[in-house]
Each structure stands twice: as C-alpha cells, then as structure tokens.
C-alpha cells in the first residue's frame, strides 16, 4: 500500500479531493548556508545553498529500479489533444506502458489540454482510440477514473491556482506587471548586448506599496518564479546519463499567465507530483523543461521523480520525422491496413533491444523483456520498408481462420466482393497470400487478378513480340476449344481439370512451357505475369459463374474475355510503332 497524505494548508475548490504523495522529510530544502548530501531511496540529492538566490541540486538514480523506495511504480503518458497520435508519441506511450507492466506498476493517461485554442474533443477521442487499438490499456485516466483525478488538465485549474498562491505566499513567485511592449524591449536590449533573452527582474524586488498600486489600477499581471542567480542542476537521466544546466541562463519564468491560465511546466510539475508519478519517461525534446520543473518541485517540497528522455524518431535522411516523409500517425497506419501488434513490435525496436538478434515480439513478450537500461540514447531511424516486412510476419502469425476472415472482410468492405467468406475467399487468399504484407495489399492483388488489361498488354513492346510468336494461332485454337465446350467443361473440374486440358491442348499445338503458357496467360488474364496461371483462371471462371464480384469493379468474366477475342483486330496491333506510348497505343 502506498503511504499517502493530503496536502496541508491548501484548500481545493469544487469539492475535489486531491491525494498527493507524502513528502519525504529528507527531501525538503532548507535554505541555510551549508552543504548537505542526502539519499532518498536510490536517488542521491546534493544541495549546495549559499543564499536564497544561489544553489545547486544534483539528482542521480543508481539503476532503473523504483527510486521511490518501496512505493509502486507510477508512470504517465500525457498527450496534448491537438492532432493525431504521432508514432513518436505512440512509442513514448509504449515505453511507459512496458515499464509499468514490467515493474508491476500503474500506467496513467493524462490529457494535457491547456492549449484551449488548439485542443479539440475530436483529437482527444482519436488519441484514446489509437491507444486502445494498440492494446495500451491505461490503469487510470479518461474513461477509467482513479484516485488521482481529474485526468484532464482543463479540469484541474483550481488546483494549479491554489499551488500558485502557495508559492506567492512563500515568496517563491511574485507578481510581474510588465506589459508585452516592455518584455519585447528587454529582449531587444539583451539581443544588442548578445545576452540570453532572460527576464530582467524588474518586479522581482518591488515593494508591497508598488504592487498594491498596480493592483488598484487593475493592471494585468503574471506570476513569475524566482530563479536563483547562481548554481546548477544536474540529473542522472535513466537513458542519457548525467545532464547539467546552469541557472544563470534561465531567468525568472512565468508560471501563471495574466488571463489566469497556468503555463505548461507548472501544470506538468503539479500534476506529476499530485498524481504520485515516480518515473517520467518522455521525448528528449522535453529535456530542457526539466530545469524549470525541478525548481518548482523544490519550491513546493515535492520529491523529484526519476527522468528518462527517449530519443527522437528520425526520417531516413536523419531529419525529424514529419508529414513530408509519409504517414506519421497511428491512425494513418491503421487505415493503411497495418496490424496493431506489428506497430507495437516495430516501435519497441526504435531505440530498444533485448540484447539478442530477435526482432519478433508480442506485447506480452515485450513486457517480459523490457528494461529502461537497454533504451538507446541515439536517434532511431523510421524505416517504413521494415515496418511493412514486420507487419507481414505478424499477419502470417495469425491463425489461418482469422487471417482469411480478415482478408475476406477487407475484400467486401472495399467494394470488390459481395461476400466475405466462402470457398472462393479461401482459395483466392491461398493464391495471393505470398504478396500480402499489409491487409490492404489483398485489395490490390485481387483487383489485379480480376482485371483484364488485354489491349494495354498487347500494345506494349513485349506484348507485340508475342504476335510474332504465334499468339493469333493459339487464340484461334483456344476459341475452338471454347466453342466445342471442352475448355469450360475442364474448368468446372477445377485445377485438375485445367491441368488435363492444357496438357492435351499443348500437345495438339506442339507447344509446351513458355511458348504455351505465355500466350494463354495473355489471352485469358490479359497480363504477361501473375500468380499460378491454372489457379488464377479457375478463380476467374468461378468469379463469373458465382457472381461474387460487385458490378462497380467492371469485372470481365472468362466467357466475355473469350468472346471479345473474336473482335480483336490483330493487324492493328502489329502496326503500332514501338515508340508509341502505352496509353496512346491502346486507343490506336
């Protein structure tokens, strides 16, 4: 059981009960001129305090065990609902999920929707849907509840205001009445002097009378956090190792805007602390935020969580992965026919391995093998070709019955077939399965199988060569076999009937091998290449007799193909010059 304590001295509005982690006595920062070294479980904190405006803090974690001693591991994924779930965000969620599950902890989902202009309910629903589709079930959060809610930042404003007031009363923050024009002027002066664009501290030492005068005039103000003038912060990141910042580059920063809305870094710190988050696993782009957040943790007397900053996912050109590189959101890959288990497997390998050459993992296997110590700090390249290959592995790992049903549903839902199950679907899948890595591949493969681009093929240079190799003679003999009923009767017997017929047909023409099968393929399928010809032609025949293909596909039945051969102007194809483009030749 976790030891919990209600934060003393703070009244929470709206009848909300907020439970926060009991603050360790040894984690409180005492402002006195001395050097202290303390240990909080596996986290070592070194604090050097010279004055109230000068200090250093160093937090390091000895391994990836729980730095909150015997407390349960609690991690969080905190997306902003301003768009779709990016694959980078999905990987961060996955690593948090795997760490929590591998440690017997809790995976918390928190919606960071303080950006009121960009946050939408639709985006939030899309993020939740994508996480659920990936199988990353959260233990606490929207739709689930929990003891640490609310789990949307927009519903926690009273909490942020109460903590801001506490910091104001303690002197850790102050009211800043600077106008936007004044702040811009400060930036310009700093730029001219080639100094960092930090706040000058104009209102940091204002008297009570000066503050009251501005308040009486109704001058808008922000809350600024007092940053020590000297000192540094050092953390031992679980992935990146030791990371340090000097405080003199920061300047006093805003935690509450003049409209009463809290700033991101303040919200995150308060949320992580009051939700008892023990490990913050997030993207490396949040690494600079750690300095501000550490100062807020200290000022509020909260224990620091362990930090792990995951590298970015990069495009093949090693730039940050973006829309210009193709699909980047989980929803896009779902619509493209990828399986959730393949997405999970592939994302896990972007920066992590189990130390072997194994690459195929189920979610359960990942939970069993995951260790934060094996996450690489280097950027990971997103390889869409490898993702497709991996999806093919997971697709073929499905039970055959489930796989055929999935493919059948795809064929019906895409409008190719009228039915989603039956012997035709089973045989079509078995014929085409070698080319299916993504479920939507099945749609293209079946469409290609059912198509009859005879004129385009014959207009090509390779097709015209066949005219010189006796294609017309084979066509005439094929039509004769159709007319006397031998050909269609053979197809009624399935592939065995085809094999008997084609053997006898070749013998009658004194043809075999390529000289026999290439002309037949062109005449019956309209293509020069394709899957097994006998099985293809039997399926095409059955598609016509069963009427399983939808009208909008424009399917040409086998009988229609044979009848159309009677109308072909073979000489017209002979006269097409080799340099004529395919589309133009098809209409010559």
Question: What are the key terms here?
Answer:
transit peptide, 43% helix, disordered N terminus, single chain, Glutamate--tRNA ligase, chloroplastic/mitochondrial, zinc ion binding, 5-stranded mixed β-sheet, 13% strand, elongated, 16 strands, 3-stranded antiparallel β-sheet, alpha/beta, disordered C terminus, EC 6.1.1.17
Give a written overview of the molecule.
The protein has about 600 residues and is α/β, with parallel strands linked by helices. Helix content is about 45%, strand content about 15%. It has 24 helices and 16 strands. The chain has helices at about 85-100, 120-135, 155-170, 180-190, 210-215, 265-275, 290-300, 330-335, 340-350, 365-370, 385-395, 400-415, 425-430, 440-450, 455-460, 460-465, 470-485, 485-490, 495-510, 515-525, 535-545, 560-565, 570-575, 580-585, and strands at about 5, 20, 35-40, 45-50, 55-60, 75, 105-110, 175, 220-225, 230-235, 240-245, 255, 280-285, 305-310, 315, 380. Strands 3-4-5-10-11 form a five-stranded mixed beta sheet, with no helix packed on it. A three-stranded antiparallel beta sheet has the order 8-9-12. Strands 1-2 form a two-stranded antiparallel ribbon. α1 links the parallel β6 and β7. The radius of gyration is 34 Å and the shape is elongated. The chain starts with a strand and ends with a helix. Catalyzes the attachment of glutamate to tRNA(Glu) in a two-step reaction: glutamate is first activated by ATP to form Glu-AMP and then transferred to the acceptor end of tRNA(Glu). One of its GO terms (molecular function) is glutamate-tRNA ligase activity. InterPro entries: aa-tRNA-synth_I_cd-bd, aa-tRNA-synth_I_codon-bd_sub2, aa-tRNA-synth_I_CS, aa_tRNA-synth_I_cd-bd_sf, Glu-tRNA-ligase_bac/mito, Glu/Gln-tRNA-synth, Glu/Gln-tRNA-synth_Ib_cat-dom, GluQ/Sye. It catalyses: tRNA(Glu) + L-glutamate + ATP = L-glutamyl-tRNA(Glu) + AMP + diphosphate. It is an enzyme of class 6 (ligase).
């Amino acid at each position: 059981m976790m030891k919990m304590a209600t934060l003393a001295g703070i009244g929470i509005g709206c009848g909300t009960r907020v439970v926060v982690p009991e603050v360790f006595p040894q984690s409180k920062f005492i402002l006195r001129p001395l050097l202290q070294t303390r240990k909080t479980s596996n986290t070592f904190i070194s604090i050097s305090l010279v004055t109230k405006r000068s200090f250093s803090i160093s937090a390091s974690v000895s391994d990836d065990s729980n730095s909150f001693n015997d407390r349960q591991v609690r991690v969080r994924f905190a997306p902003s609902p301003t768009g779709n779930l990016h694959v980078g965000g999905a990987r961060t969620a996955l690593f948090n999920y795997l760490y929590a599950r591998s440690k017997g902890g809790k995976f918390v989902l928190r919606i960071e929707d303080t950006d009121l202009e960009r946050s939408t309910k639709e985006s939030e629903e899309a993020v939740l849907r994508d996480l659920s589709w990936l199988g990353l079930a959260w233990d606490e959060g929207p739709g689930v509840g929990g003891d640490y809610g609310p789990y949307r930042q927009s519903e926690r404003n009273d909490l942020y205001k109460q903590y801001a007031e506490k910091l104001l009363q303690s002197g850790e923050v102050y009211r800043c009445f600077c106008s936007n024009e004044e702040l811009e002027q400060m930036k310009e002066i700093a730029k001219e002097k080639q100094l960092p664009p930090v706040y000058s501290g104009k209102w940091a030492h204002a008297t009570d009378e000066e503050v009251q005068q501005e308040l009486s005039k109704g001058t808008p103000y922000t809350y600024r956090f007092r940053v020590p003038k000297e000192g540094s912060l050092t953390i031992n990141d679980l992935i990146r190792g030791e990371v340090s910042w000097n405080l003199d580059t920061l300047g006093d920063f805003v935690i509450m805007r003049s409209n009463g809305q809290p700033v991101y870094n303040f919200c995150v710190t308060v949320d992580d602390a009051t939700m008892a988050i023990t490990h913050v696993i997030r993207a490396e782009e949040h690494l600079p935020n750690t300095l501000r957040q550490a100062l807020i943790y200290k000022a509020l007397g909260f224990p620091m969580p362990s930090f792990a900053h995951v590298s970015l996912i990069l495009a093949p050109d090693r730039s940050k992965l973006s829309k210009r590189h193709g699909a980047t959101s989980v929803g896009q890959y779902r619509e493209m026919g990828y399986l959730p288990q393949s997405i999970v497997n592939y994302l896990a390998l972007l920066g992590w391995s189990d130390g072997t050459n194994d690459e195929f993992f189920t979610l359960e296997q990942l939970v069993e093998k995951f260790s934060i110590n094996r996450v690489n700090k280097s950027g990971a390249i997103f390889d869409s070709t490898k993702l497709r290959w991996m999806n093919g592995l997971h697709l073929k790992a499905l039970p055959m019955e489930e796989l055929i049903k999935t493919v059948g549903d795809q064929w019906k839902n895409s409008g190719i077939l009228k039915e989603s199950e039956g012997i035709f679907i089973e045989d079509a899948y078995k014929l085409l399965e070698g080319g299916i890595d993504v479920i939507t591949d099945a749609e293209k493969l079946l469409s290609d199988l059912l198509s009859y681009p005879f004129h385009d093929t014959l207009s090509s240079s390779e097709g015209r060569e066949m005219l010189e190799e006796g294609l017309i003679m084979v066509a005439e003999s094929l039509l004769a076999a159709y007319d006397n009923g031998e050909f269609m009767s053979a197809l009624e017997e399935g592939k065995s009937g085809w094999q008997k017929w084609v053997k006898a047909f070749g013998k009658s023409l004194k043809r075999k091998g390529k000289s026999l099968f290439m002309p037949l393929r062109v005449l019956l399928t309209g293509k020069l290449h394709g899957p097994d010809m006998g099985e293809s032609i039997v399926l095409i025949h059955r598609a016509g007799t069963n009427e399983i293909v939808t009208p909008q596909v424009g399917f040409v039945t086998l009988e229609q193909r044979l009848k159309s051969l009677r109308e072909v102007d073979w000489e017209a194809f002979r006269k097409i010059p080799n340099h004529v483009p395919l589309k133009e030749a098809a209409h010559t």
